[in-house]
Design a protein that fits this description.
Layout lengths: L3 H8 L24 E11 L10 H19 L2 E11 L4 H17 L3 E9 L3 E11 L14 E5 L4 H10 L6 H12 L5 H6 L6 E5 L3 H12 L2 E5 L7 H4 L5 H9 L5 E6 L4 H11 L3 E8 L3 E5 L5 E2 L11
Parallel strand pairs: 2-3, 7-10
Antiparallel strand pairs: 1-4, 2-4, 5-8, 5-9, 6-8, 7-9, 10-11
Helix pairs in contact: 2-3, 4-5
The structure holds adenosine-5'-diphosphate and magnesium ion.
The site of adenosine-5'-diphosphate (ADP) has 13 residues, from strand 2 and strand 3.
C-alpha cells in the first residue's frame, strides 16, 4: 500500500513556477505581485452532503476547485494558488488519479498552482483553499450596491438544481436535457474572466451557489438596499424554461444551488460596459432587476404585480 507521502508525490506534486516554494516543505512560500491584495477563500465538499460516494472522481476534482474559483471570480480576483486538504477512506489510486486529473485540468485552464495541502484517512472530504490577486482596493464585494443600480446575472439559472432533481427521481427530462443539466451540476465553469472584466464596472457581486434569491439577498443585506427582480427576465436554462409551471422547477430557477453564475449590480450608465465585459468573457449577461432604497426583495410576475416569495435558498442548518 502506498504511503501518504508517495500518494502526495504521485498525485499532488507539480512544479509551482509561480511560488517561491510549493508542495514538500512545512509551508509554501508565495510572493504576491506588487500593488495587489490577496483574495483568499475556502470551500469544502463532503460526501453524502455535497456529492455521493460513487460520483465520478474526475468531475469531483474539477468541482472541488471550481466552486472555490467561483468565489474568487465574484471578488474580481485572478486565481493563482490553491491548497488541497483531503480525507480519504482508503488510498484508492484509480480514484486519486482521476481526481487529480480533473483538478489539474481546471487548475491549468486558470493558471492556478497547487502549492500545498494535507492528506489524511477518514470519511471522504475535499477541502480546497484558493488564493488570488486583485488590484489593491478594487475587489468586488457584496456591499457596494446603491439604489438605482441595475441587477444582472451571467449565463443561465436552474440547470444544476434540475439535474439534481432528476438524479433524485420524479422528473422526466429528455436525455439531452439531462446531460446538459448534469454537466452544469458536476462540472460548473467558474466565471473568472467575467469577474475580472467587471472590475471597475460592477458595484457589487456574488456567486450564485445557494440560489439566486438567497445570494442576491446577501448583496442587499450587506449593501443596505432593497431590490425588484422581474421573474420574466431571469435567464432560465432551456430545460428549466420549458417547465416553469411546475413549482419544483420554479424552485430550481429561483432558489436552486450550484449554478455558480455571477449575480452583480452596476449603475445604469455602465450597462454598455457590462455588455462588453460579457463579450470579453464569452458569457451572456442579463439584466434582471433594479436596486431600490429600503430593504427586502420584491419579485415581479408576468402581470407586473408583486409575487409572494416562497422559495428559499439552501441553508445547511435551516
Ligand atoms: P506537515 O506534516 O508538515 O503538515 P504533511 O506531511 O502533511 O506536512 O505534507 C507534506 C507536504 O505535502 C506539505 O508541503 C503539504 O503542503 C503537502 N501536501 C499534503 N497533502 C497534500 C495534498 N493533498 N495536495 C497538495 N499538497 C499536499
Ligand atoms: Mg500536515
Amino acid at each position: 500500500m502506498p504511503s501518504e507521502f508517495e500518494l502526495i508525490a504521485r498525485y499532488f506534486t507539480r512544479p509551482a513556477h509561480g511560488a517561491r516554494l510549493g508542495v514538500g516543505d512545512d509551508a509554501a512560500l508565495l510572493v504576491p505581485s506588487a500593488g495587489m491584495e490577496l483574495a483568499v477563500s475556502t470551500d469544502m465538499l463532503l460526501v453524502g452532503r455535497h456529492f455521493l460516494p460513487g460520483d465520478d472522481p474526475q468531475q469531483l476534482g474539477h468541482k472541488a476547485l471550481a466552486v472555490n474559483l467561483s468565489d474568487l471570480a465574484a471578488m474580481g480576483a485572478q486565481p493563482r494558488w490553491a491548497l488541497l486538504a483531503l480525507a480519504l477512506p482508503e488510498p484508492d489510486e484509480d480514484w486519486l488519479a482521476a481526481f487529480s486529473r480533473g483538478f489539474f485540468a481546471l487548475a491549468g485552464q486558470h493558471g492556478v498552482e497547487l502549492v500545498g495541502g494535507d492528506t489524511t484517512r477518514g470519511p471522504l472530504n475535499l477541502c480546497v483553499t484558493v488564493l488570488g490577486e486583485v488590484e489593491a482596493g478594487r475587489a468586488l464585494t457584496r456591499a457596494g450596491a446603491r439604489p438605482g443600480d441595475e441587477i444582472w446575472v451571467s449565463g443561465s439559472l436552474g440547470a444544476a438544481a434540475l439535474g439534481l432533481a432528476q438524479v433524485q427521481g420524479g422528473l422526466a427530462l429528455t436525455p439531452a436535457e439531462a446531460a446538459s443539466c448534469l454537466q452544469r451540476l458536476h462540472a460548473p465553469e467558474p466565471r473568472v474572466a467575467l469577474g475580472r472584466a467587471l472590475q471597475g464596472v460592477a458595484s457589487a457581486a456574488i456567486d450564485v451557489s445557494d440560489g439566486l434569491l438567497a445570494d442576491l439577498g446577501h448583496i442587499l443585506e450587506r449593501s443596505g438596499v432593497a431590490a425588484e427582480v422581474d421573474i420574466q427576465r431571469l435567464p432560465a436554462h432551456p430545460a428549466v424554461a420549458a417547465r416553469t409551471a411546475d413549482p419544483l422547477v420554479r424552485r430550481c430557477l429561483l432558489a436552486g444551488g450550484d449554478d455558480y453564475e455571477l449575480c452583480f449590480t452596476a449603475p445604469p450608465d455602465r450597462a454598455q460596459a457590462v455588455e462588453a465585459a460579457g463579450r470579453t468573457a464569452g458569457v451572456a449577461v442579463t439584466r434582471i432587476g433594479r436596486v431600490k432604497a429600503g430593504e427586502g426583495l420584491v419579485l415581479v410576475g408576468a402581470d407586473g404585480a408583486a409575487m409572494p416569495i416562497v422559495e428559499r435558498g439552501y441553508d445547511h442548518f435551516a
